[in-house]
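User: Once you have settled down, look closely at the record that follows, taking as long as you need, and be ready to discuss the fold:
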Amino acid sequence: MKIWTVDDVMTRAVVSAEPATTFREIVDLLADRRISALPVVDEAGRVIGVVSETDLLRKVEYAGGSEPRIFDGPRRRDDRRRAQGRTAAELMTTRPVVVSQGTSITSAARMMDEAGVKRLPVVDARGRLIGIVTRGDLLKVHLRPDEEILADVRINVVERFLPGDAETVIVTVVNGVVALDGKVDRWSSADIAERLSRQIAGVVDVVSTLEYSFDDSRAHGSRLGFGTR
């Protein structure tokens, strides 16, 4: 069963900045490419920071060079300092959140959510920039047609993991929702079919009404919410 990764959906032709890229050049790049942030790379192509519209807007927020206030916290003082920056190295957010190539889109989505970012630079084993993935890119998996998802469930779940029950399991897919019907030999087979179907790229939900002849749930631990069928 193919697990979709960031490699499948990322943009490979990445626009990046160098530490010496000027404020005006960054503004021009963001406007010309209609993007909201740029990874900053060193001479070896390694990601060392990200400069975003938010970083640039500090120029506007602190225009006029207002004096620091006595109660300004460390973050406020850092924002004020970076507002005076003229190059990517002075403006960028350091310690950027990046994702390694081969990372599953599920893990990438979790990283974005936890870090509160809208995009992740994708790096190779040496930390070199090879792509960028956005929230919109991660949603591309849900553009898969129902027919493609159906074939994936049939071949990579039912026929591969439940060959003995393949002829008695009925699979339908409507708008990304997988429905499993029919009968299998054991409860564990019904459980496997449902859990693995949820891992298929593009699946929105799984509704299982599979019946089973033998309840082997005790051998797999307790299961709340399941009744003998």
